[in-house]
Amino acid sequence: MGSAEDDHLPKKQTHKSINDQTKYKLKLLVLIILTNLLTIYIFTGPSLNLHPILKNTINDSPFPSFGSTSLLQELNATKNELETSRSQIIVLHLQLKSTNQLVTELLAQLNLLNQSINRTADSSLLNFNDLLDDLSKEAKLGLGPHKLPLGLSPRSGIDEVYPSVGGGCLMYKEDLAQYMTYNVGKECPVDDVFAQRLMLKGCEPLPIRRCHPKAPAGYVEPIPLPKSLWSTPPDTSIIWDPYTCKNYSCLIERRKFPGFYDCKDCFDLQFREKTRWQFDNGGLDFGMDQVMATRRQGTIRIGLDIGGGVGTFAARMKERNVTIVTTSMNLDGPFNSFIASRGLISMHVGVSQRLPFFQNTLDIVHSMHILSNWIPDTMLELIMYDIYRVLRPGGLFWLDHFFCLGTQLNATYVPMLERVGFKKLRWNAGMKLDRGIDKNEWYFSALLEKPMS
Ligand SMILES: *[C@@H]1O[C@H](CO)[C@@H](O)[C@H](O)[C@H]1NC(C)=O
Ligand SMILES: *[C@@H]1O[C@H](CO)[C@@H](O)[C@H](O)[C@H]1NC(C)=O
Ligand SMILES: *[C@@H]1O[C@H](CO)[C@@H](O)[C@H](O)[C@H]1NC(C)=O
Ligand SMILES: *[C@@H]1O[C@H](CO)[C@@H](O)[C@H](O)[C@H]1NC(C)=O
Ligand SMILES: *[C@@H]1O[C@H](CO)[C@@H](O)[C@H](O)[C@H]1NC(C)=O
Ligand SMILES: *[C@@H]1O[C@H](CO)[C@@H](O)[C@H](O)[C@H]1NC(C)=O
């Protein structure tokens, strides 16, 4: 400050010419301002170093010795410092504010985490309605519960019912929400592929929707039996949108072109389908008549073909007066529609669902290619137990071309079938050589029986 005073000495000389009265008034004014500024300073904060000025003003009685210019300069300096400190305070304030926000946000996150930890730990305490919480009204309608109009039912002991849906549905709530988005009473979205994928993920059965499936244009009455069993249905019988092929001739021709498709040559009924199970080669290929001959004539009447492709097993059994229900998935082909067009019963279910049959009812269960080592062991054992359940005592389980590795055959699958309780009537294993002997890939075909007692 001292050096600043010296620098301004020439200016001081010029100011001397202002008359004394004006000088005095100015001094008074400056004093008032200074007092006010000091008050502001005292109340804003101690960060500014004003002590020298305070000393000069109060103790040394500044008026006689201080020129107006130096006072102004002091004032200016003070003002500048004040301004600086004020802006510092503003910056500090802003920083504090953002820190505060950060802490609040962190706390909120922590709380969320805490809640989710709680939720996982206490999931058994969660109410089914909580799980439905963020679903649309229509989705909630499809998943229930619904109050019984007559109140508590003595038969079931409940006063509300839940429509049946797969437990997996709630693991894929976004997909479920999408599936349940449609115009009530109008045409459903053509979302077969999406819906089936949802089924395969464990949302099976899917919830019921209040909409109409798109109707095929130019639908004609089906071909009459028994001709329908071995006829290709008209292209106008189905909606082709979900499939790569857009007509049956494309599906029939598919076997001649490269590319992997499930049941690639199945739609050509004049090709391999024509001869399936008609002959017994003494190995993996069992003949239908040979299998039927293990039971008394006419006692194989009803049954199930799991993953039955285009339904040829059922068609051949129908020719033997046996009624077979065929389960099938529409994996890039209208398998269910095709089976139905042949005049056979198709069921659109995967392999993970409990079979919708009562225990001890079916004479025969057949399955080719579908049950194999792609299914987790635990799940496969559940499936085997369910097949055992629905078969009647003395009923047949024809496990046709089960694929696995040589190492799994005796280590996993033979013990599993024994554990479930099947009795072996016939067993053939054969190496699958098309990908090389070193792959150690095997097929086995088995005719198993549910024991009479
Ligand atoms: C006050 O200080 C500022 C910045 O230091 C300077 O630009 C200004 O000229 C000064 N005013 C007076 C009257 O000395
Ligand atoms: C998290 O939850 C536990 C008890 O459930 C509680 O003691 C803790 O304070 C919670 N923490 C936060 C950040 O909410
Ligand atoms: C966690 O659950 C307990 C009871 O199980 C409850 O008292 C507590 O408030 C819950 N904490 C959070 C953060 O939801
Ligand atoms: C069937 O569809 C294919 C393409 O997928 C097309 O090239 C062919 O002309 C169609 N055939 C008939 C009979 O419509
Ligand atoms: C199937 O049933 C019909 C009528 O009941 C009978 O005429 C026919 O011989 C039966 N076919 C076989 C293979 O048993
Ligand atoms: C499985 O075991 C049987 C007899 O126990 C044996 O003959 C057969 O070679 C074995 N199969 C494989 C693939 O190891």
From TrEMBL:
Keywords: Glycoprotein, Membrane, Methyltransferase, Signal-anchor, Transferase, Transmembrane, Transmembrane helix. Gene3D superfamilies: Vaccinia Virus protein VP39. One of its GO terms (cellular component) is membrane. The chain crosses the membrane at residues 26-44. Pfam families: Methyltransf_29 (PF03141). One of its GO terms (biological process) is methylation. Its main location: membrane. PANTHER family: S-ADENOSYL-L-METHIONINE-DEPENDENT METHYLTRANSFERASE SUPERFAMILY PROTEIN, S-ADENOSYL-L-METHIONINE-DEPENDENT METHYLTRANSFERASE SUPERFAMILY PROTEIN-RELATED. It comes from Nicotiana attenuata. Belongs to the methyltransferase superfamily. The lineage of its organism: Eukaryota, Viridiplantae, Streptophyta, Embryophyta, Tracheophyta. It is a single-pass membrane protein; Single-pass type II membrane protein. This is Methyltransferase type 11 domain-containing protein. It is found in: Endomembrane system; Membrane. GO terms for molecular function: methyltransferase activity.
